[in-house]
Amino acid sequence: MDALAIDRGNCCSCGQGRILGHWLAAETFRCCACLDEYGDQPLEKTRANCKAAFRRPGKPANWWASREPPQKLADVPEGFLASTTWWTRADNLVDPGRKSRNCSQPAGEASIVSVSDPAHHYFTGHGAERVWEAGLALAWHLSLGGQGLPLSGTGLRVLELGAGCGMPGIALARQGASVTLTDVPWLLRLCHYNVEANFRESDERRPKVATLRWGNPADVAKVFASMGGPPDLVLGADLVYREDDFDVLLATIAALGAHSTLLTISRRDNAVIAVFLQKLASQFWHVQSCGILGNSLLMDLRLPTADVSIRRGTPGSQAAAAA
């Protein structure tokens, strides 16, 4: 799917008409909500899943509003999106109170502005609704120069997976890192809005935004071309909640070949976290460090030794993986 080829059609999966989505074939159209929940798997399987997921007739659980987002944040009508200014302090990222307004002025250096769509005027997916707690925790950790970074902020090549509002990536970009925020195609405009809210057009630190669907080698190749090679650091906040995604998430992180991956995981379901930890152990991932940030788990992952050897061209050893 072309990241820019969002069109209108009648979804063959859930039945919604004149909805935004992608043409998967000449006569097969799938809305962004169904793509977000079920991907581009065979239609027969998706139909069964969508029917089971209906909250009410004609609307899948993860529904999609019918409005196209404007190209620029400044063109969003007042009240359509929620904007929050988060102030960096030694003990937390403090929210002085959410205001539903259009925010087009860059934030100050001591703050980060988040733009979200809690009413789903433009964006599908739970990631667009708000800044999730794990994202706040990671952004705060990075804003204060948190431990676990493989290099200093300046010159660091960083990729954020499933960025949404992109607060962790924005926090590192403020420190001089070269940051690329990635997400599924239909959430890229939200990433752009958050970049616009925090960086002026002329700011050299302004993060890039790119499509990266987990398990898609073509997307990985395009991101590498844009970044000039693999990232030094991968960020991910609140990505660990659906067990069916664990394999493809880890495969994508491995394909990126970064020195280090920092994940924050909300501690709302210990059983899911236990399954993820078992998955890491079974695939021989190295958990370099693991700690608690508020209600989130902070984990520094290193690739299995064999993957580091292949991607970095270094001898296959434990030392190479942990260096």
Automatic annotation (TrEMBL):
SUPFAM superfamilies: S-adenosyl-L-methionine-dependent methyltransferases. InterPro entries: Methyltransf_16 (IPR019410), SAM-dependent_MTases_sf (IPR029063). It holds the Pfam family Methyltransf_16. This is Calmodulin-lysine N-methyltransferase.
